[in-house]
Fold:
Amino acid sequence: MSSQFLGEENPGVAPEHARFHVIPAPIERTVSYGGGTARGPEAILVASEQMELFDGVDVPLERGIYTWLPVPADGDTETVFAALQEAVARAMRARGAGAGLGGTVPVVLGGEHAITLPCVRAVLEVLGAPIGIVQFDAHGDLRDRYHDDPFSHASVMRRCLDLGVPIHSVGVRALSPDDLQTRRERPDMVSYQDAIDVVPTAHQTVELPPDFPERVYVTFDVDGLDPSVISATGTPEPGGLGWYQALSMVASVAAQRRIVAFDVVELAPVSGHHADDFAAARLVYQMMGIVARSRGW
Ligand SMILES: [Mn+2]
Structure:
């Protein structure tokens, strides 16, 4: 059992000295195809122990990375989501009120995509300011409900819309009629660069609407990446984002807006496919570096 991101390499600073707060959320309520996301956070933590600490520019670890204990995943949806919301809010306040507010970035490890909703609620609660979501994903996740469940992974972006949070999605290539209908009904709140728009041309930048909020939550569903990068996920789709393309696009977001929190979700580890676990861990670490430099840390 690995307890912290980067394992022994991480000197283990106190929470108030860490910029990045890793919150393992091994939550898996709804499964539509392949299961296993409950084991995602642990697989990412174990893989992270093998990672070289230089990210190509500097050493993100030097900003302080604190890993919280996993959020309890047993109980009804309301209980589990409330615990995660509380954990994210606590991480955001870890450096104290006032100047410290927003001085940390929660990094939530899923778990299924449904967990983004309580994370977004926590960010809204603590910041008390508008945020937007940039969603890297193969799927729209905009259905009102899925298998009669309004809190399904396939409805998570729709629930975020209900909170008044606009969404810009990147890499989508699998849409249900309900997803399309939501896009048509809410053009003011839903914008997108689908895979067909960016992958064949190796497009590297994210074009946010001009009025998109200054503070941004990034949710990265690993199925947004091409299955040649990560295939250990519940509902893989061909034709996804390339590795460098995805990182460039995250950096593009960070250059335009302030990334206040992010999650990496939907890794469903497969025994023997440790390259996928490692890619997810590396994605988390590279995103930390991008965010740290953009924030001037
Ligand atoms: Mn998703």
Summary: The first strand starts at residue 20 and ends at 25. Residues 24 and 70 are 5 Å apart (CA to CA).
